[in-house]
Amino acid sequence: MKNNPRIGSHVSTRDGFSGAARHTVKLGGRAFQYFPKNPRSLHIKTPDFKDALSCAEYCREHGIVSVAHTPYPTNMAVGLSRGEEHYRLTVESLINDLIIAEACGSVGIVVHFGHLKGDNALQGYQHIIRCMNDVLSAWSGKAKLLIENLAGDHGDMGMTLEESVKVRELANEPEKIGFCMDTCHLFAAGQWNINDTERLLRRGTELGYWDELLAVHLNDSKYGAGSRKDRHARVGHGMIGKEALQQLVRSSELAGKAFILESEKGEDGTHRDDIAEVLSWI
User: Left (φ > 0), alpha (ψ -120 to 50) or beta: where does 83 sit?
Assistant: First the structure.
């Protein structure tokens, strides 16, 4: 990690996937996240595969890690509660995202844990597992499904590392599933005591969580611990603060992971300053 930090930000693909990779290098980054298609729609996209393969080649040449993020409407926990058509579209959209991510050479696609209205969380977990099974039974690529923890702003589901570990464990093909940890979400969910980060690191080790963690959304929080508000702040400018984020980034447990900034941009309209700030910690 100290010799080859993988830090970057979420970037636009308006200049194509390869353009996103090149933009990352200009910012001083060695990792980036992107939307494989319209972030507000589940509709299937036929990508420019020539551009995607160019992105993969550029990333290999420059030692860049890329991660795709599924569209916001993706919610594996709703299952068939919104009808068969919506469920099939969710499954097909996730497969579509995996295909695009694979072509771009990305490590996987980040998908939010999901939430189900009402008190039947068990049914929500069952829906998630079924959805993952249906998606991954048709998938043989290297890109993984990366489950992201939630802040709790939509309900109680997906707030703990234990939940992510358990649904992965219960899936038919857990080897095709990994994790993406959002630091703001973890803090806002009351799952990270920033005065005892060692406890978090130990818990992740005991669960085997770090072994399957491929990406970290390195976000500070605009609100306090346990607020259950998903509002990102620039690193070192929020309620988590610089010291606690530094401790995570420098930990051996997170060595080699891809760190992605998802907060507001700096005065120059980019994440350049924040990338440089995190690099200075290492």
Answer: left
Among residues 166, 189, 185, the alpha carbon closest in space to that of 177 is found at 166
Give 19-63 pLDDT, tens digit per residue. 999 999 999 999 999 999 999 999 999 999 999 999 999 999 999
DSSP 247: H
Helix (H, G, I), strand (E, B) or coil at 232: strand
**What is the C-alpha end-to-end distance of the chain, expressed in Å?**
8
Closest CA to 1 of 253, 201, 245: 253
Dihedral sign for Cα 41, 44, 48, 49, please: positive
Cβ atoms 240, 197 nearer than 8 A: no
Q: How far apart are CA 212 and CA 233, in angstroms?
A: 26
pTM: 0.97
The CA–CA distances, whole Å, from 241 to 14, 38, 111, 175, 223 equal: 32, 33, 26, 34, 11
Question: Which tens digits make up the pLDDT trace of 169-180?
Answer: 999 999 999 999
| Spatial distance between the Cα atoms of 43 and 90, rounded to a whole number of angstroms | 9
Residue 182, number of CB atoms within 10 A of its CB: 25
Task: Give phi and psi for 217, each to the nearest 5.
Answer: -85, 105
Query: What sign for the dihedral angle of Cα 219, 222, 228, 229?
Result: negative
Residue among 84, 87, 98 nearest 45 (CA): 98
Q: Are strands 177-182 and 144-148 parallel, antiparallel or unpaired?
A: parallel
Q: Decide: 167 and 126 in contact? Cβ < 8 Å.
A: no
Q: Which of 119, 122, 126, 185 is nearest to 150 (CA)?
A: 185
